[in-house]
């Protein structure tokens, strides 16, 4: 992400302490360190601010006095908005691809999409998170708080490791907005395309998609 290494320089003169930020030619190590520090202290901190603010807004406006109904509505709304964007993935990708030569408009289009997806993601997380706490081995239940936490941790860890998708839990890299070409930045997910062989055909049968994998 960073293409230079910026060094903060101080010098003591008769008029006082002078400070200057000088960008110098970086080495690969310097660029890597700068990327890591920038990602963790700027990008992650900003993401936390966004998540906290949206979560609190949802708590305040979606049935604040009825927690279970609030969680169900949040989950349903998150699924609905995410599904709508998913089914619009191809035309949105085509629009982004046509704007490859106009980076400012492409960035604006993708950022609008990402704002909608951020809210839908928070709706999903909030609903599923709270319902999981309330319904799956709740902390105030007979088993106590530790059992539900460890069981959830074990199921999630084993499940994601089995699917070879455990890297999604932690922060797995940051890319610059608008850096994907050909419309590939809209829902850039490729799990099944990497897992299944090239001979796996997707056939449209009535309203249901059937995946028919040919055994070679």
Low-confidence parts: 7-12, 19-25, 201-216
- N/C terminus separation: 42 Å
Largest sheet: 2 strands, antiparallel
* Oligomerization state: single chain
Molecular structure report:
The protein has 216 residues and is α+β, with helices and mostly antiparallel strands. It has a domain at 1-61. It has 6 helices and 4 strands; from the N terminus they run ββααααααββ. It has helices at residues 28-61, 67-87, 89-98, 103-135, 145-162, 191-195; strands at 5-13, 16-24, 200-205, 208-213. Helix 2 runs antiparallel to helix 4. The longest helix is centred in the N-terminal third of the chain and has 34 residues, at 28-61. It is globular and about 60 Å long. The two termini are 42 Å apart. The model is unreliable at 7-12, 19-25 and 201-216 (pLDDT under 50).
Quick summary:
The protein is α+β, with helices and mostly antiparallel strands.
Key terms:
alpha+beta; two-stranded antiparallel ribbon; 6 helices
Show the helix and strand layout.
Layout: E1 5-13, E2 16-24, H1 28-61, H2 67-87, H3 89-98, H4 103-135, H5 145-162, H6 191-195, E3 200-205, E4 208-213
